[in-house]
Design brief:
The structure is a homotrimer.
Chain A lengths: L1 H20 L4 E2 H23 L4 H4 L2 H15 L1 H6 L4 H23 L4 H22 L13 H14 L5 H22 L8 E2 L5 H4 L1
Helix pairs in contact in A: 1-2, 1-4, 1-6, 1-7, 2-4, 2-7, 6-7, 6-8, 6-9, 7-8, 8-9
Chain lengths: ~210, ~210, ~210
């Protein structure tokens, strides 16, 4: 079940990569490369940092799912664009929550402290999207005012706390619910963090560095 | 022979990095850093993902070649710019083909399946150029309509198929010929993939994510 | 003492990341992520390339310092902006020098030759800043005409040469002094390398690749 969900997450990320790349007229292979990078980039970075074998070299399923989803998204882009506007955002939010929880589990399994696990959850779930934005030369998702990192951090902290008190499957369900829930609410009602939890400064270049 | 070709590939990549960086007025050390990143970035990423020692730490030749070529390109930029317009493109195409085949060989040698090898061939041969474009803040080569990834993917697939039937040196020659040939034809006659193998969508930002 | 300085370097880098991110209105978690990436990105890349455990997974101090400094910079941004204009630049120059020397020591300790150590010193000390610029979608520090890479390269070469003749602590002091000194002079009097050590070419896109 969880394994299946993870593959759905990979597929959703691949689709989001394809849609992002297709803003410019690109050929099919360039588009598929962006889809792949988006889908497996985050997990790859996580495994490099943890110094463990890269997950998609261990089990090729995720690789094939990412590849298939990228080609399918290319072929079926008209269908995808007919879906209700926010559906992809919700799927993305679900994928992000899944990736984060899995990364936390994996990091804890290697004996790292809870704080590291929360960070690796965040890294895993946003790195693919950041790589997608960088290679398609767009402002990265970190620069959007959307609540993107916030629900992952809050849900991740909640998860490692819950693990002290509850059995793992239940904790996982609650934490993923919180991650998905906060983001879904933010998507639905276009919510942001209150202004006082944001920052914007004006600097000329000399001051800046 | 192959070893020599590989060093030529490294040198060509370093020069392309220097030319890319020199679009802004930069000092010599910044330019050489971009040259180095372009030349050895792709192979470095390949080795990190395969979890094997990074190639230029094992054998410093590639490192010195990249460094020397970067300085030489800085010093001799006037000469380089006098070369026939497309010569550098052809050299780059040759370097890309070499890098891809070497990466496929290396990946297969570590026991990974053919599909992974083809992907690592692609990663190795384009990552250096993508890093170059990212650090010089330009649209990455993935965003160009040029046939860049396509010949590598097709040649890579051909190579792993041929390896089943032919001895390695011959397969290598044929595959590299195909990789170089497709790209050379595309450069010479400015060809792209047929429109139906490309994709461009218009999304406003809300739909996009 | 050195350990303490290293943490100061981490904190300074985190602050520079926060200030860079805060040019757009971002929420607190996105800003802290950029602070973290800037502070520990360079050392992470060094350890990945050297194939040794990532430093902040070994000793969480740097991680907590980076996290704390990022939150503190968010909270105290008004105070920071009241500091004398160039103070942050000087602190950054100090952090860079520290990171470079530490990376050289670490690389030499693993038995790599001096040339590799100098490169790793450069990689470690500038990668965090480059990652910061990439994720905040700005021209990277490599594209600035400021003397950024130059003092690190010169100081690094000096350091590995001095190590042949002098005891390590003294060499370290001299090399760091040179790194910091060149950059401080450049900041103070806005110096650049002489024009003939820079390069700028004009190419149209066809010639370029």
């Amino acid at each position: 079940m969880e394994y299946l969900f993870a593959q759905v997450g990979v597929a959703v990320f691949a689709i989001s990569g394809v849609l992002s790349a297709a803003r410019q007229r690109l050929d099919i292979f360039s588009i598929v490369v962006v889809g792949l990078l988006t889908a497996i980039g985050g997990g790859t970075l996580r495994d490099l940092i943890l110094n463990v074998p890269v997950f998609w070299l261990q089990d090729l399923t995720a690789f094939w799912v990412a590849l298939g989803a990228s080609f399918a998204a290319f072929a079926g882009v008209r269908l995808i664009l007919k879906l209700p506007l926010r559906l992809l955002s919700y799927l993305d939010a679900m994928g992000v929550a899944l990736f984060a929880i899995q990364a936390i589990d994996k990091t804890l399994a290697f004996g790292y402290p809870a704080a590291v696990a929360v960070v690796m959850g965040l890294v895993t779930s946003i790195a693919g999207g950041i790589i997608r934005d960088v290679v398609t030369h767009r402002p990265t998702l970190l620069l959007s005012r959307e609540l993107y990192a916030t629900p992952i951090v809050l849900g991740g902290i909640l998860y490692v706390v819950l693990l002290q008190f509850m059995v793992s499957p239940l904790s996982r369900l609650v934490a993923m619910g919180v991650m998905f829930g906060i983001r879904a609410i933010a998507i639905r009602w276009q919510l942001f963090l209150p202004l006082r939890l944001t920052l914007k400064i004006d600097l000329d270049d000399d001051q800046q560095r």
